[in-house]
Amino acid sequence: MELYQLPNDEEVRRAYQQGEEAVVELVRKLTDNFKLVAARMQVLEDRLAKNSSNSGKPPSSDGLNKPSPKSLRKRHGRKSGGQPGHAGYTLKAVEHPDREEVHRVSRCHHCQRSLEDVEASGMEKRQVFDVPRVHIEVTEHQAEIKCCPQCGEISKADFPKGVTQPVQYGPEIKAQAVYFNQYQILPLERTGEVFEALYGQVLSEGTILEACQEVAKQVEPGNGAIKKHLTEKEETVNFDETGARVEGKLHWLHSASTALLTYYAMHTRRGQPAMDAIGILPDLKGRAIHDGWKSYFKYPILHGLCNAHHLRRLKFLEERYPQAWVTELADLLVEMKEAVGTARQASLTCLTPEQLIAFDNRYDHLVEQGLQANAPPQRPEDQPKKRGRIKQSPAKNLLDEFQGHKESVLAFMYDFKVPFDNNQAERDIRMMKVKQKISGCFRSKEGADLFCQIRGYISTSRKNGQQVLDVLRLALAGTPYLPSFVSLPG
Q: Radius of gyration (Cα) for the chain, nearest Å?
């Protein structure tokens, strides 16, 4: 509906002179105007009221008005810091140091008598842990060439595997270059500066890129095996996606992950075309955990929704559209989560039937209470018909999700293998945002794909307790790390 142009003084007088009906018509138009303006103001105020704590907006969008964090966890009453039983990382003296320096007493500090010939009665020891200055070690490989005295043919010794050029960098330098550029997310120029500062050796951008390409090529089969394992073997898989700039255009980084596996893929689209092309969701055997993005529901599989998102949306309703059912439903979801956590601590695999029935009934009652308080919007008779459904209130939208996807919302309560939220996927995708803040966009699609291959490999390795430099060395040696429960095809 377009805004009605406000009448001037002459139009008001004319309506007054025309009688009651003309005045009523004028007031009706003004009332419609006020309603439209109020609706638009509500939308704008809602938009301004949204932040990372009550919506899906990222924390980086909060600016100076960043809300104070509020955890769903109850206070445990313990002091901050390491708890009893924690191993800790205190620096401790070693029994056999690499080098010893004896500092002798040459003169008495009191009477200044010489103590050169006096034997020491004791020794106080202090140890300093430090790294010696490192220099690049150059190894020259010399292959003998001999002429056979019997047949006259020339024979040459073989160089070690991997030594293919007259002058080249070794695997350790390559591993560290990939480590700084892909894991620590230093731009190419700064990665070269690190090598110059630490080792006195300048690495060109081309050298760093070649090392990254070599690692990406080696880990690609393993990433393919992880993708197949996620599709066919895992009972629950967490999914998420985030925007990324590639060659100046918007792309989307898609992630599929578990507590021990990570797979990344870059695509120009966010929705179903990208998901089809990546190829995990169309054939997924397990349950997909996600934030409710509509494209996920186009796949006829089991779903699990992120209740952290639901709690943030309920908090927004508490702030902007307060109703009794909103707070009660938020408290109920947290109560369910705590009941599941208590059962797990007791080594139980499910809640009792009585608990399930009670929680289920309370959930249905609160959703029904919310639906009664938020009736579906009706299209005004004088408004021309438009395609699509009428815009609903935020409360009605959320209630429709709670009612229509109840099994996905409460999946965590019935199956302990299903997480309460989608934090796993959000943690796995966070590094892309860090990458963007440090280095900006990807200059090529090849660079974006390379990032996905290496970061997926690194993420999986770290989840399984491996050191990043160690697994990069393995990849450059042609034997990349792969968890024992994942099998390469063929």
A: 33
Would you state the pLDDT for residue 48? 65
Question: Could you report the per-residue pLDDT of 263-291, keeping only the tens digit for each?
Answer: 999 999 999 999 999 999 999 999 999 99
Q: pLDDT per residue over 193-245, tens digit each?
A: 999 999 999 899 999 999 999 999 999 999 999 999 999 999 999 999 999 99
Q: Please state the pTM of the whole predicted model.
A: 0.82
Token pair for 233: 């073997």
- One-letter amino acid of 454: I
Residue 185 token pair = 């997310």
